[in-house]
Amino acid sequence: MAWIAVVKQDNEGRITKFLDFATEAGALAHVAKVSDTFPDAFASEAPAGGIRDFKAERGGLISDPVVDVPPTPHEKRVKAYKDELGEDALVDAIREVEAIVGTPKTEKFQSLIDKIDAIDARFPSEAG
């Protein structure tokens, strides 16, 4: 069972900041770590369909299906990465980045950076 640490929600209870964890212990440890900054943080089993259809209420999740919520810029960008680069390519890229940190970039890696930059250019900045 996957777990999430819900760190922040908006005034309507929509979850705005969370992290995924493989274990309950990991989620609880993160909640303890951030509790001074985010006193309403809590751990919960991750909903099977994702958190978009849930709200945070009284330290737990409640179902609140919303059918036509537009995706956030981040969600659009991630979908474009998966659609245009392929999820396997993304996983390979992450592994390659981890393997070459501090070494010269390979041609393959530079090509991937160029593709990611082209996708990023189509989406508005999320910086505030």
The share of residues in helices is: 40-55%
Radius of gyration: 18 Å
Number of strands: 5
Order of strands in the sheet with most strands: 2-1-3
Q: In percent, how much strand structure appears in the residues?
A: 15-25%
Alpha-beta classification: alpha+beta
Overall spatial form: globular
The residue-averaged pLDDT reads 76
Keywords:
globular; 5 strands; alpha+beta; 4 helices; two-stranded antiparallel ribbon; 128 residues
Fold and architecture overview:
This protein is of the alpha+beta class and about 130 residues long. The protein contains four helices and five strands, in the order E-E-H-E-E-E-H-H-H. The protein folds into two domains: about 5-65; about 75-120, no CATH class. The chain is about 40% helix and about 20% strand. The strands form two sheets. It has a three-stranded antiparallel sheet. A two-stranded antiparallel ribbon has the order 4-5.
SSE layout and pairings?
Elements (H helix, E strand, L loop, with lengths): L2 E7 L5 E7 L2 H11 L7 E4 L8 E4 L2 E4 L9 H13 L1 H14 L6 H14 L8
Antiparallel strand pairs: 1-2, 1-3, 4-5
Helix pairs in contact: 2-3, 2-4
In short:
The protein is α+β, with helices and mostly antiparallel strands and 128 residues long.
